[in-house]
Amino acid sequence: MNNIRFAICLSVACIISPLKAKEIASDIQLKPSELNITSELHPQSVCNAIVDFANEPLHNTQSVKLNENVSIELNQFLSETYFNGAKVKSNVICQKLYGSQYTGSEPEWALFIQNAIENFKRTGIESGRLVFPSDVDKVYSKNLDNKEYAFFGNYNGTKQIFKNIAILDKRHNTVFTISVSGADRAKHKINEEFQRLVNSFKLTDLDIDDREIN
User: Using CB atoms within 10 A as the burial measure, which of 17, 59, 106, 190 is most buried?
Assistant: First the structure.
């Protein structure tokens, strides 16, 4: 299997196109009366995991044939909240691979990051900057293999933040990507929602791989 082609569908932007990729970075101005922040959570089954969304997410699915023997099934869940008039988007994708195995090798993760960068460039983000948090600042505290990273850039003159994590569940041959994004002025809300969303992630059949790291 061609690893470069394989890694294309490991990025968080892989199936955004049906939902209009540029909407990820949109910054809609709303009046205070239009804000729809809610305290009620919406647990959602995402492949073999559960994630608690702040609002009812939209669901999109897509099957991608990588070659004659290998295919990938993607399910995307996208919800929105608003903070200081800025749209904050929570985007979760599960990507189950058929006909081959995810390895979690460093070359595979390197291709993942490379293609994530290229996909974000295609959305029109300018002056992009990729940042990896230190071990102390990482949000995810469980044992599944993962890569946590953030993108910072400009879209139509507005500073944007994308907080991301990819979590690899080798036993189910599935990659989960969790992303929270929005305008820089909603940075506190983005960080807060990213931490809440990631902490809510749990496999439906808990085992040693998903326990807290001591």
Answer: 190
Are the beta carbons of 44 and 178 closer than 8 angstroms? Answer: no
Burial class (CB in 10 A: 0-12, 13-18, 19+), 195: middle
With 0-12 CB in 10 A as exposed, 13-18 as middle and 19+ as buried, what is 168?
buried
Is a pLDDT exceeding 80 seen at residue 116?
Answer: yes
Tell whether the model's pLDDT for residue 156 goes beyond 60: yes
Helix or strand or coil: residue 43?
Answer: strand
Which residue do the tokens 């989960």 mark? 176
**What are φ and ψ of residue 181, in 5° steps?**
-140, 160
Q: Is 62 left (phi over 0), alpha (psi -120 to 50) or beta?
A: beta
β-strand pairing of 145-155 with 158-169: antiparallel
pLDDT tier at 90, thresholds 50, 70, 90: very high
Judge if pTM exceeds 0.90.
Answer: no
CA torsion, points 138, 139, 141, 147, in degrees to nearest 10?
Answer: -60
At 161-211, the pLDDT tens digits run 999 999 999 999 999 999 999 999 999 999 999 999 999 999 987 654 555
Helix (H, G, I), strand (E, B) or coil at 176: strand
